[in-house]
Structure prediction request, 714 residues.
Amino acid sequence: MKKIIVLMLAVLLVTSIFAKITFWTTEVESNRMQRIRALATIFKAQTGIDVEVVPVEENDLLKQIPIAKNAGTLPDVLESGIEPMILLGSQNFLDEDLSTKIINDFGDIYSGAAKLLSNGKDKFYAIPFHAWVQGIWYRKDMFVSQDLGDPITWYNIALAAKVLNNPQKGVYGIILPKKADAYAEQVFTEVALANGARPIDENGNITFNTPEMVEAFRFYKELGKYSKPGFTTVLDALKGYLNGETAMIFYSTYIMDDIAVEEVQKGRINKFNPQLVKNTGFANKMINTRPTSYGQVVALGVTKNANKDEVEKFIKFLMSDKNYVYWVHMAPGGMNPTRKSVAESDAFLDNPVLERYGKAKIAEIIAALDSVERFEFINGKVITDMSKLSANFVIGKAINYMFANDWTPQQTAMWAQKEAEKVLGK
Amino acid sequence: MAVLSLREKDARFGWKLVLPTVILISLLILYPVFYNIYLSFFEVSISDTPNKFVGLQNYKEILFDSSFWKSFGITILFTLTTVIGSILVGLGVALLMNREFPGRNIVRALILLPYVTPLIAIVFAWKYIFLPIDGPLMQFLANFGMNPGNDFVNNPNNAFWVVSIFNIWRNFPFVYLMLLSRLQSIPSDYYEAAEIDGASDWQKFLYITLPELYFVIASVALLRGIWNFYKFDEVYLMSKFANTLPIYIYEKAFSGIPEQGIAAAIATILFIIMISLIGLYVKKVLKW
Prediction:
C-alpha cells in the first residue's frame, strides 16, 4: 500500500512538473497582466499545472496565429473578441466540442452572449468569458446647459456635436475615430445598424453600396466636422473626454473606472475631476430608422492541439467564484460576467466602481448583452466573411480615406464595396 | 592508402576550415531561401489540412494583381528617394564636418544620434512632435499661421513622404560616417596642387573630392538600396499604410486569411529582381 502511495505521489509530482498550458490574453495592460499572473500562480498552487501567460495586442492577434502555427507555438487557450474567434473557428483552429461541453457544464451562461459564438450547428466556437456594451458617453452638464436631448437619435447626436463644438475654447463636439483600426469599425457598426445598413446581407452579398450605407457614411462624415482634428484613435477619445476636451465620445463600458476612480484617471491624464461621474451620461442605444446597441463578448477559445484536461480545469477555475470576480474586477463595468449566477452575486457587485454606478445601471448593462447586434450575425446566421473584412480593416480604411481624401459618402461606399469584393474574392 | 601531395592536403585543410561557415550559411540562409521558393508553388494551409500544389498559379495571380504592381512602384520610388536623399544629406554633412571648427567632436557625435537611438523611441518621438493640436511642432507652426489640426503622420496620403523623410533622417549618419572616413584619407597635396593651378572650390569638389569618393558612394548606395528595398520595421512602425512591398508581403502572409503561398511567390520574385539588379550594379557601377 505504502509503495502504491509513493508511486502515485511520484506520478503526480512528475505530471505536475510537466503539465503546462500556454494562455494568450489580449489584456495587455500591466495592471491587468499582474492580476492574470496572480490567478495563474494560484491555479498552479492548486493543481500543479503551470500556465504561461502571453500578452498579445488584439489588433495583432490574427497576424500572430499563423506565425505561431508555423513555429509550433500555438497557445492552448486564447482570450479575444468575437471576430478573431469566429475566423479561427471557421478555419478549423478551435475545439468546438470542448467549448460546448464547458458551456453546458456551467449551465448559466447568458444565451445572448453564447449565441454570438455559435457555429450555426448547435455547437460553440468558444466560451463567452466577459462582455461589454458600447455607447456614447456624454457630459450631462453641457447638454443640460444647452437644453439638448440625450444623444440617442442621429438628430440629437449631430445637433449636440454642432452646438457644443467650440475649438477656440479647446472643446470639441465629439472625438470620432478616423484611423483605420478596429475602433473605427466598432463605432461605425453602431451608426450603420441604427440605419439598417450592413456590409454583408443574409445571402452573403456585399452591400456597401446601398442607400442606407451611403447615409451612414454621410452621418459619420457630418459628425467629423465637429470632431477633434487629426486621425484620432481610441486613446485620443478617452483622454479627450477625461480632460474635458469633448462633450461626447463613443466608448465601451470599460471607461467606467477611468471616470470614477481617482488613481485610474490620474494614470491616464495626470489629474482627477471628481465631478465627472456625476456629470457623465451614457446612451446605451442609437436610433435612426431602427434602434440598435453594440457590444462585444470576449471569449476563451481552446485550440485543437491543446492539453484538453488541463485547459478545461483552467477555464473552469477562471470562471468560478472569487477567481472570476477577481478577473472581471480588473476593469469594473467593462468586464461583465457572462455567467448569470456570478453577475447577480453580491461578490461581483461589491466593488467601489460598480457601487458608484449602482446595481440598477449594472443590471441594465448586462441585460443589454442579450440584445446586442453585430455585422456577423443576422437572424441566427453567422456571416464568417465579415471577420475577413474586419481583419483587413475594410471599414476602418474606408473611414480613414473618407476623411483624408475628403471623399463623398458615395465615393466612400463605392471604395468599400470594391475593397470588400477584392478581399472576399467576389 | 594513397599518399596525398602537399597541395591536396592544403586543399583538404582549407575545406575543413570553411566547412562550419558553409554549414551555417546553408542552414540559416540557403535553406530558408529554397524553402520559400518551394512554398511559392503551394496553396499553404494554416490549419491542419496539407498544403495543396498549385504550380505557377501564385505567380500568375501576383503578376495580374494591380495592388502588387502599385506596391512595387512605390517601393522603387521609396528606395530611390531614400538612397539619393540620405547620400545627399550625408555628403553635405560630411563635407561640413571635415572642416576644423570649435566643438567639432561633440557635433560629430550628436550627428550619429538618429542612427544609434532605438528605433521605437524615435518613432514615438516623431509621432509626439507631429501630434495635431497638442504636438510641440504643430503648436510652433501654428504661430506662423499653419493649421495645427493637420495630422501629417497619420494621414494615409502623406504616409509615403513621412516614411521617406524619416528614413533619410534616420540613415544619413551611416552615409556621413562612411564618407567622412574616406574624406579624411584624401591627401591634402591634391588640393594644394589644385589651388596652385587656380581651381575654384567647386572645381576642387568636382575633380578631386567626388572622384575620390566615387567607390564609397557607390558601395553605400548599393548597401542602402538593398536595405531600403526590403525595409520593414521603420515603415511599419511609422505608418502601416505606406504600401511598400515588404508591408504588402507581411499583410498577405499574416493578416486576414493568410496567403502564405502568394507571399512566398512575391518574395521569390523580389529575390530574383534584386539579385539581377545587384549583379548589374556591381558590374557597371562598381566595375568589379
About this structure: Chain A has a mean pLDDT of 90.
